[in-house]
Write a structure and sequence with these properties.
Elements (H helix, E strand, L loop, with lengths): L5 E3 L18 H36 L3 H29 L1 H21 L3 H29 L4 H31 L4 H4 L1 H11 L7 E3 L5 H24 L4 H23 L7 H5 L1 H31 L4 H6 L2 H19 L4 H19 L8 H28 L7 H33 L5 H30 L18
Helix pairs in contact: 1-2, 1-4, 1-5, 1-7, 2-3, 2-4, 2-8, 2-16, 3-4, 3-7, 4-16, 5-13, 5-15, 8-9, 8-16, 11-15, 11-16, 11-17, 13-15, 14-15, 14-17, 16-17
Length: 496
């Protein structure tokens, strides 16, 4: 794309002569920017799991059938997963800060409507609207981070915090959902988003708008991507409930294949594609998205199995279940927010990802040592700490690779793509591993039900570890060995 097709969305200012160092944002401003983006990412990700603990209370209060209850989760996943690419591209075209704010407003209003919902239909509609807001805000948050922080250790550290929020959000959602549901009401799992979103909106003034593209909206590409990925998420979720031989499941998956194939054809033929070929032309970036897909598949299934084990087999209350995930959160936060960025300054990226995946596999094997009569915390707490630490190293590194080297006007779509990889991977992994665990459980029945369920969960966790091994192979075969990024000289400012 020519320079004439790009525009700086921020107010015009003095031009920096070639070779001169531009004024770097102050440390205080960068700290505020990181706090705003991290808070937004945490809020958007935790919404995936915060509702899960409250589902029984929602069902009782609104008189929902089991089928409609599932739609409270599925509706959000459909809108979020289906619109991520379109949301990322919208930020590139119309201004990332502006689109980010719009997504936050939509998400906030949807949370209010959801909390006030008097029927299942109203709650499901609010969840769809929440998914739309999240799909707009999530990729633009990551692209704003890339445009605000200078390349090098500062950006790596910021991406580490962002990556930590991706893992922490799921765990915090389980913990917060249990506390709010048990001590207040299920409606507060919706209301809690409102003050967070308002605070983030107030803080968006510190974010740098960055460059944007004056190209046209790729309407055919946006429609085929949205409905294609939406059909894929729906088909995968339904397959987990009804099986692959269900007629509606097969139709949804067939529609997804046709639409995604059409999307690929449209992108190749379009002069202004929604997903430029350059975004995936880099082998390392393509590999990073594949690794995120696989890690999402294993991680989402892990939360599913452990939650069922703790609540059904062990009989723990929602609050205790949420607290049991704290070691996972601590491990991710320590690795992604601290150790990971430091390692990236000293060793190649491929080595950091590989190390994290090996540690993650060890953690999954450890988690699989479950038994109905044992002290669950003796296994769960240390094993989750190990697993969380390994995945934290992976999150920060693949996030760095996913937006590195992308032209400024395409960072939104690159951010949307890495988010899409995680969401679609999570849906696929959950459906496949849940179905597999169910088969193992059925084979152990009739017999002790707790033993049969635990066997299924343990087998699912082992397969999750196997998925991390596949991710390790993908890492070694696609991620290039790059030199570490040492600290820049301190005698002058740096420019992205």
């Amino acid at each position: 794309m020519s320079t004439q097709d790009r525009t700086e969305a921020a107010p015009p200012g003095p031009v920096t002569p070639p070779g001169a160092a531009a004024s770097a944002p102050s440390g205080e401003r960068l700290g505020l920017a990181l706090a705003v983006i991290a808070a937004a990412q945490l809020m958007l990700v935790l919404d995936n799991t915060i509702v899960a603990v409250a589902l029984p209370s929602m069902q009782s209060a609104l008189g929902l059938s089991d089928a409609r209850l599932g739609w409270i989760v599925t509706a959000y996943a459909l809108a979020f997963g289906g619109l991520l690419l379109a949301g990322g591209r919208a930020g590139d075209l119309f201004g990332r800060r502006r689109v980010f704010r719009a997504g936050l407003v939509i998400f906030t209003l949807a949370s209010l409507f959801g909390g006030l919902a008097g029927s299942g239909e109203a709650l499901i509609a609010a969840r769809v609207l929440q998914g739309v807001g999240a799909a707009i805000a999530a990729p633009t948050a990551l692209s704003l981070l890339a445009s605000t922080f200078p390349v090098g250790p500062a950006r790596n550290k910021a991406l580490g915090v962002y990556g930590a929020m991706g893992g922490l959000g799921s765990v915090v959602g389980l913990l917060l959902g249990g506390a709010l549901t048990e001590y207040l009401s299920w409606r507060w799992v919706m209301y809690i988003n409102i003050p967070i979103a308002v605070a983030v909106l107030i803080g968006t003034g510190v974010l740098k708008e960055g460059e944007r593209d004056r190209g046209k909206v790729d309407v055919p590409g946006a429609l085929t991507a949205t409905f294609g990925f939406g059909s894929l998420v729906y088909g995968i979720n339904r397959a987990g409930e009804k099986g692959l031989d269900d007629g509606t499941t097969l139709i949804a998956l067939a529609v997804a294949v046709v639409l995604i194939a059409a999307f690929v054809v449209i992108q190749r033929a379009s002069r202004a594609p929604m997903l430029p070929g350059s975004v995936l032309a880099d082998r390392s970036r393509a590999g990073a998205n594949a690794v995120m897909f696989l890690v999402g598949a294993g991680m989402f299934a892990t939360f599913y199995f452990l939650t069922l084990y703790m609540q059904i087999v062990k009989g723990y209350e929602p609050m205790i279940t949420g607290l049991a995930y704290l070691p996972f959160a601590i491990g991710i936060g320590f690795a992604a927010g601290g150790v990971g960025p430091q390692l990236l300054a000293k060793v190649p990226e491929r080595s950091v990802i590989a190390t994290g995946l090996v540690i993650g596999v060890a953690g999954m094997v450890w988690l699989s040592f479950l038994a109905p009569g044992q002290n669950a915390f003796a296994v769960l707490l240390p094993a989750q700490l190990v697993c969380g630490f390994g995945l934290g190293l992976v999150f920060v590194t693949v996030t760095v690779i996913s937006v590195r080297g992308v032209s400024p006007e395409d960072t939104g779509i690159a951010a949307g793509l890495i988010n899409t990889s995680q969401q679609i991977g999570g849906a696929v992994g959950l459906a496949v591993l849940a179905a597999t665990a169910s088969v193992i459980t059925d084979r152990n029945l009739p017999g002790d039900r707790a033993e049969a369920l635990t066997a299924g969960y343990a087998y699912g966790l082992l397969i999750g570890g196997g998925i991390y091994l596949i991710a390790l192979i993908v890492t070694l075969s696609t991620i290039r060995t790059t030199a570490p990024h040492p600290q820049p000289p301190t005698d002058g400012p740096t420019r992205p």
